[in-house]
Design brief:
By secondary structure, this protein is α/β, with parallel strands linked by helices. Helices cover 35% and strands 27% of the residues. Helix 5 runs parallel beside helix 7 (169-181) and helix 6 packs across helix 7. The chain starts with 5 loop residues before the first helix and ends in a 15-residue tail after the last helix. It binds adenosine-5'-triphosphate and magnesium ion (MG).
Length: 283
């Protein structure tokens, strides 16, 4: 039986949380020094939560631990300690077999779809593959659902027989999103999913994400370096620095009056927000 915690489902003010990460630690072995093993804390006591059908943007400099958090939440890495309450269950405490049942509900989309999309498969096969692995529907129903998903993300069913290298970068990312949606996840983790795209294509896919969230009630963990995109998509923003969340709050407030120096430094690198960064003299 799964553990159920009402505290994990309801936030302090009674809001419904889909994800509630508590004091998460992930240490990696980082070699040996004077004969004793050294560890690097990629996550050093991370706590955050996301309300159902909202977006939390996770921003932080390279190496701050964003992808490590994504992998732990998606049950692809085991945290060293802490809890990951998802939809009322602490997935960090589940066995491998129990996690397999949860994984379809949490899908990841990465920056480079070329590496995650099988180049030998057609668009239709790519989107239908998760359904085959999970033994959902018969062949005909799978194809129908895959075609509908392609259309849903803006790829014509006429292109269902094309392979990834016949699509543009933006279309490949749409394909990756369609595949991620195949198993009807509740949480979509987008790890720099727009970062490799041109500005205009980024904006189109961001709008697609907003439309999908509105129509399907999806919850997003949106990992980015780009505060402008975070401002466009997120309800809340969390800033990570050296494995910790150093600032978390409503997107508009955090962008208007950042408090932590790490947030101000990151904002200063975004031309649109440089004025609000209020950097100390010399930075
Ligand atoms: N499998 C691993 N083994 C050892 N160290 C790792 C491993 N994965 C990540 N790390 C280390 O953990 C820290 C956090 O890495 P992570 O990839 O989570 O950062 P990030 O914020 O996603 O960075 P980026 O913005 O560059 O993607 C880094 O110091 C990284 O070198
Ligand atoms: Mg990363």
């Amino acid at each position: 039986m799964f553990q159920v915690s009402r505290l994990a489902i309801l936030g302090g003010d009674g809001v419904q949380l889909l994800l509630n990460v508590e004091n998460l630690v992930k240490r990696y072995a980082a070699g040996k020094s004077f004969g004793s093993r050294e560890f690097l804390a990629a996550l050093d006591g991370v706590s955050l939560s996301i309300q159902i059908a909202t977006t939390l943007a996770l921003v932080g400099e390279s190496g701050s631990g964003k992808s490590t958090l994504a992998l732990c939440v998606a049950c692809l890495e085991r945290p060293t300690s802490g809890s990951i309450w998802f939809d009322g269950r602490d997935v960090a405490a589940l066995s491998e077999k129990q996690q397999r049942a949860v994984r379809p509900q949490i899908q990841l989309v990465f920056q480079d779809p070329s590496s995650s999309l099988n180049s030998r498969l057609t668009a239709l096969e790519i989107v239908a593959e998760p359904l085959i692995i999970q033994r959902r529907f018969d062949k005909q129903a799978r194809s129908k659902r895959a075609c509908a998903l392609l259309e849903r993300v803006g790829i014509s069913a006429k292109k269902a027989g094309s392979r990834p290298d016949e699509f543009s970068g933006g279309q490949r990312q749409r394909l990756a999103i369609a595949r991620a949606l195949a198993l009807e996840p509740k949480l979509l983790i987008l790890d720099e999913a727009l970062s490799a795209l041109d500005c205009s294509v980024q904006a189109q896919i961001a709008n697609l994400l907003l439309e999908l969230q509105f129509s399907l009630g999806l919850t997003y963990l949106f990992i980015t370096h780009d505060f402008a995109m975070a401002a466009h998509l997120a309800d809340e923003i969390a800033v990570m620095d050296h494995g910790r969340i150093v600032e978390l709050g409503a997107a508009e407030k955090l962008l208007r009056s950042p408090e932590h120096e790490a947030t101000r430094c990151l904002l200063a690198a975004t031309p649109r927000f440089r004025g609000t960064a209020n950097l100390p003299e010399g930075l």
